[in-house]
Specification:
The protein is of the alpha/beta class and 392 residues long. 34% of the residues lie in helices and 26% in strands. It contains twelve helices and 22 strands. Helix 5 crosses helix 7, helix 6 (198-208) runs antiparallel to helix 7 and helix 8 crosses helix 12 (369-389). The chain binds MU-OXO-diiron (FEO). MU-OXO-diiron is lined by residues 77, 79, 81-82, 144, 163, 220.
Length: 392
């Protein structure tokens, strides 16, 4: 695709990756993604902000005139989906310097073997004059790595935010057109990489809100001509209390755990608690992550396998522990054959969660009447705690 005009002097370059289905060999990308790169032509200096995955460098280079005098390549984030083509840009424009912060420099040297003398490092709040345009660098750490920063084009009021506010969507739209679609994709991305750094991101938002912003230009997905749409969404995900919802990831091998899970769902709904059920044998882990943003309680359903939880459940628990959702309660339900330590193993896998454990319900083999009664008590307890906490 050709470069697309944002303003007289700012263009969107990059690569729309319609085929991408997995990011970092972990995160499902049902809608593909884009790697956005931006060209700013000042009256004195020209800069590119971020690049694309190395394998798509030819597309990026084809969008740049051979006779362009490129002065700076700005790296807001060293992860290779944004930095991977910087070596090719340096090769095409050997006079260009790479601008990043000291942590970014260290990462780019180790990840891409860029020579030390190519760098200029900037501090938080430092400005770069392009002649008639001025970029201010704003450190916004942990969206997604510790070195991540944003850049604010003062005259045009554009915030280049890299992963921050990004959405994994392949689209020809320059700007957000379908807010519902972008909301879900942005929430998925927030859940998967930013939720664990909740407190730092609240500070980052306060920091960028000191600027007057007309456009947010992330390095994935379409641009936001109405910044309040995505800023308000982030504030809700970060600061709103958990909701009256149970997220229930589970696995069942021969049906007993599923019988218990289905019964618990019905019992919870009867008591006014919403449930999002995820069969980990088939689920999109990104959807689960989205619901972890809001869930008040997590219930894990697992059979006992080789004396511990099912490995797929262990994977789900490991992910939930890493994402540090705001849930306040957790419980475990499931079936076992002759014993084991599924509950102890799972509980030991969740040290990051600041949750109260509600008594698990384990059935020996196929659940009996007494097990279903215990599930009713569990549902009652969850409903009561949600009311006490004031979950909406
Ligand atoms: Fe889009 Fe952290 O890379």
């Amino acid at each position: 695709m050709d470069a697309r005009r944002i303003t007289d002097k700012v263009s969107l370059l990059g690569y729309v990756d319609w085929d991408a289905r997995l990011f970092d060999s972990l995160i499902p990308l049902p809608d593909g993604t884009s790697y956005n790169s931006f060209l700013i032509k000042g009256s004195e200096k020209n800069v590119i902000i971020d690049s694309v995955e190395a394998e798509y460098s030819a597309e990026l280079l084809s969008q740049l005139d051979d006779d362009l005098k490129l002065d700076y390549i700005i790296s807001l984030h060293a992860e290779q989906d944004h930095s991977g083509s910087i070596p090719m840009l340096i090769e095409k424009y050997p006079g260009a310097k790479v601008i990043t912060n000291p942590k970014g420099k260290e990462l780019l040297i180790s990840l891409l073997n860029i020579k030390e003398d190519k760098f200029i490092t900037v501090e938080d709040g430092e400005e770069l004059s392009l002649g008639d345009k001025t970029l201010e660098f704003i450190y916004t750490p942990w969206v997604h790595w510790p070195e991540t920063m944003s850049a604010y084009l003062k005259e045009d009021k554009i915030l280049f935010s890299c992963d921050f506010f990004g959405s994994h969507i392949a689209t020809t739209d320059l700007y957000v057109t379908d807010e519902g679609r972008v909301y879900e994709a942005a929430k998925r991305y927030f859940a998967e990489i930013m939720m664990p750094f909740n407190k730092i991101i609240i500070k980052n938002i306060a920091k960028i809100l000191t600027k007057e912003i007309s456009i947010i230009a992330p390095s994935h997905g379409p641009l936001y001509p109405k910044p309040s749409f995505i800023i308000d969404a982030y504030k809700d995900w970060l600061e709103s209390p958990a909701k009256n919802m149970v997220v229930l990831p589970y696995i069942s091998m021969h049906g007993s755990t599923k019988l218990m899970v289905d019964y618990l769902v019905t019992s919870l709904v009867k008591k006014g608690v919403a449930v999002q059920l995820y069969n980990l044998a088939v689920t999109d882990i990104g959807k689960l992550a989205i619901d972890l943003v809001d869930a008040g309680t997590i219930v894990i359903g697992t059979p006992t396998v080789l004396s511990g939880p099912h490995p797929n459940v262990a994977y789900g628990a490991f992910l939930a522990n890493a994402l540090r959702p705001k849930a306040k309660f957790i419980s475990i339900v499931g079936s076992y054959g002759w014993g084991g330590k599924a509950v102890e193993v799972l509980a030991g896998m969740l040290p990051n969660l600041k949750v109260e454990i509600i008594a698990p319900v384990l059935a020996k083999g196929v659940p009996l009447k007494s097990d279903f009664e215990a599930l009713d008590i569990l549902a009652e307890e969850i409903a009561k705690k949600h009311i006490e906490q004031g979950f909406l």
